[in-house]
Amino acid sequence: xxxFPASAMSFDNATMLNEGNTITWGTASASDTxxxxxxxxxxxxxxxxxxxMNIANMKVSGGxxxxxxxxxxxGVAVDLDEGGLPRDFALNVASIxxxxxxxxxxxxxxxxxxxxxxxxxxxINVQVEGGYETAKDRLTLRTFAIDAPEVGKFSLAGTxxxxxxxxxxxxxxxxxxxxxxxxxxxxxxxxxxVVERALDMQAKMMGASxxxxxxxxxxxxxxxLNAINNPPFQEKVAKAAQAFLTDPKSLTIT
Length: 254
Description:
Elements: E1 4-10, E2 14-18, E3 21-25, E4 27-35, H1 38-42, E5 52-62, E6 69-80, E7 86-98, H2 100-104, H3 108-117, E8 122-133, E9 138-148, E10 152-161, H4 165-168, E11 181-191, H5 194-206, H6 210-224, H7 231-246, E12 250-253
Antiparallel strand pairs: 1-4, 2-3, 3-5, 4-5, 5-6, 6-7, 7-8, 8-9, 9-10, 10-11, 11-12
Helix pairs in contact: 5-6, 6-7
């Protein structure tokens, strides 16, 4: 049968099987969709299946998961050029629920770490946004953020040039990204409680106070950084890290 376009499609209350996992969701919709023909599917033609898609109330079970994993919402948006390469892309995953049952039944290392930090559950949000300039072979990551309330937020942004998107889209050139030129990079961590918990966990293990652990780490940092063999840079890193340990709010590397 031939393919066809559709301004919008919905596929609610569905179930999908994927590599041992059962995936269900409550509501789902896609806009500016293009359903390919059988011939296009067989030929693996480069088509944009949709401009945006949203899935709500998702549950993943089976496989290596000890108990089901619930995700409140997943949103995807993509804009492809004539060659099927992403001019712009965005992914938002809201409320990945790491439930008490999931923590209690996780592998021993993760369970011990979560319990040691005092977390019996937490929520994770993920945001990715970026774009690609084909003419300049430049990949820009506007944001890649993992945010867990009461834990912390890790984010990075940057630009890499001399990267072939066609190579990234296939497995033919595993070094495509590594061979690119890093133009800029920013890494940031915003603490929301995990640093204090980690310091308290370490203090409990050593029979000391949080202040004692911070003092020990601050004193050891200059010696730990000697391997860099760049005294001015070492001093800059040490001062920033010491300030963060003393008052853990945020830390940015540019």
